[in-house]
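If your schedule permits, I should be very grateful for your opinion on a structural question. I have a record of one protein: its chain in single-letter code and its fold written as discrete structure tokens. Would you kindly read the sequence against the tokens and tell me how you understand this chain to fold? Thank you for your consideration; the sequence and its tokens are set out here.


***
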Amino acid sequence: MLRCVKYILHNNGASLLNQHKSLIRYKHLLAGNFQKSINLEAKWGKRFLTRNSSTQRKKEKIVGSWLLCCGGMVYVAVALGGVTRLTESGLSMVNWELLGEKKPSTAEEWKVEFSKYQKFPEFKLKNSSMSLDEFKFIYMMEYIHRMWGRGIGAVFLIPAVYFWKQGYFTSTTKKYVLLLGTLIGLQGLMGWYMVKSGLEDKFQDVNDVPRVSQYRLASHLGVAFVLYSLFLSSGLTKLMPPVSIITTSKNLMHLKKIAHVSKGFVFLTAISGAFVAGLDAGLVYNSFPKMADRWIPDDVLALTPIQRNFTENPTTVQFNHRVLGITTLSLVSLLWIYSRKCILPKRASYAINATMLMAWLQATLGITTLLNHVPVPLATAHQSGSLLLLSFALWLSQELRLLKYIPK
């Protein structure tokens, strides 16, 4: 009996042992398959993330190129505006249409357009002897400037709608796009508001010079500079993302501050140049470094109250532009000298060198333009140079944007 019990227990025990071994083997098999599944999912997940990141980067580059293209068109618009102002063509078109004015194509249409111009102060007081051919020239200058501005709106709006629908924009980019679109619309309205100031029937005396308001001209140019700056900085961010720089050097932090101050003075000097253009202040003292035989002219505070001189007295406006220009050049030179003490990434070094070179070139252009009584080619180059100098200053700020200081 006892032997029978032992025999049964022995056989069942072996059977249970074999079942236990099979269960362990099965568990190992499941664990192996599970691990393989996890590895496979991780592998495919990594590939998906890499592909997704690559696609997103491609979209960012496309958007960045589009933004820089729009910025380039704004740059050309500023240059065209300068030529329009210098050739005194801005008041030739006396109407404004949102979608564009029809350019005269026949002799009769040109005569009708010329007759409209003849009703306004600029013709009556200044251009009464103008021929039809001369009118055609100034009309075409203003027409090209206006149509180029509308072209900027089209090049911005059509891709913006497409990119928005296709999901190319991040939430931050969407805010920028809305802001840029608003500024483009504002710039167009500001342009017409400026032109209207020169068409108003407020120039009665024969000694009056019909011209647009220098305040509106400065506002028009200021909006253009802000618009260009936003296009450039946002485009550079997407195409050339700034490198994060961690530094223990206080010199580098001081360099960043000087770079921002220099950029601000570049902008202020350019806006003061709009007042110079608006008042033809470049024609009152054509000598340098002194104004005639004085460092500070006698008529610098000729108007009352005193504050009017800074925006309405041609002498004071030119004097202020000189002071701001010299200050800007000094700041940029200090920036370059200070950068010699710092270890900088290559792109930041290139940006500082470019800013320094352009600052001296711009100062040279300004002095040459003044001494030669503001010829159109030199004056156009000088105005375009101000925007190019701002471009390099913005690029430098972009490269130093992620600079962080950590104390030792």
Notes: The CA atoms of residues 337 and 356 lie 10 Å apart. The chain has three domains: 1-40, 63-241, 243-408. Residues 243-408 form one domain.
